Give the backbone structure.
Amino acid sequence: MPKIYRPFTDHESDEIWGRVYLKPVGKIAREKTTLSTDFRLFFLGLQRVSNRGHSPFLAGEIAKLLTRKEDKPFCSKYINNQIRVLISGGLLAPVSNSRCLVYPVELISLKTDRKQVAICPEHGTYSSWSLFNNDWVTDYLPTSQESVISKPIEEQIVPDEDLEFDVDTGTYSS
């Protein structure tokens, strides 16, 4: 009997994660001028994000890296407005600016072999930012009442009484 997998729309756990390759994301950010600037800005920061969520840039560097179709740089005021768009959408921490884009720990958690990173030159810390706490946090994912699931997903999907659900693999088998 083939395995029956749960639909991706049923994944509500905070423990489920995905993988994004950072080098191609940075290339897309710099070269794909047909995409929206805020989307490209989000990707540009991802390319150099540290394992604590900081993406430091030199003054004016973002504007130089995100060129327009005419190979002209954006003005710094426009870049700052795009950063505010990402902040209001919950994609960047409120402390983000054009010298350091900070990704919330609830959104981006970079897995590396390095235990520590250098202190961010812009923010003076290497700590992660939490949208739940609206503050700098230590290196653990904060808990929230929003992340508590009232019923296990396994109880919601039962295709056949003869099948057993394997919690480790997330599949049904006979």
